[in-house]
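Recall the central idea of this unit: under ordinary conditions, the amino acid sequence of a chain determines the structure it adopts. In this exercise we apply that idea directly, starting from the sequence alone.
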Amino acid sequence: MIDHISINVSNPEASKAFYAAALEPLGYHIVMEHGPAVGMGAPLPNAPEDAPIPPDLWIVPAESPEASMMLDMEVR
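Accordingly, the structure predicted from this sequence is:
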């Protein structure tokens, strides 16, 4: 099972706006921010309305000139 995906970006503010708009139709929104890193998530199926939404997509500043992606898997 996929736990979360991190996308390294060169422009965190522009990327935050892009992904927020692109993923909004899927119910995703920003649920956590740690400095320039942004965690996005969508409500879990069958979860109570007031349940916290875990971030499963992270947008983080690139640490190198090459943008990359990290996929973190969790065995359940």
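The chain has a mean pLDDT of 85.
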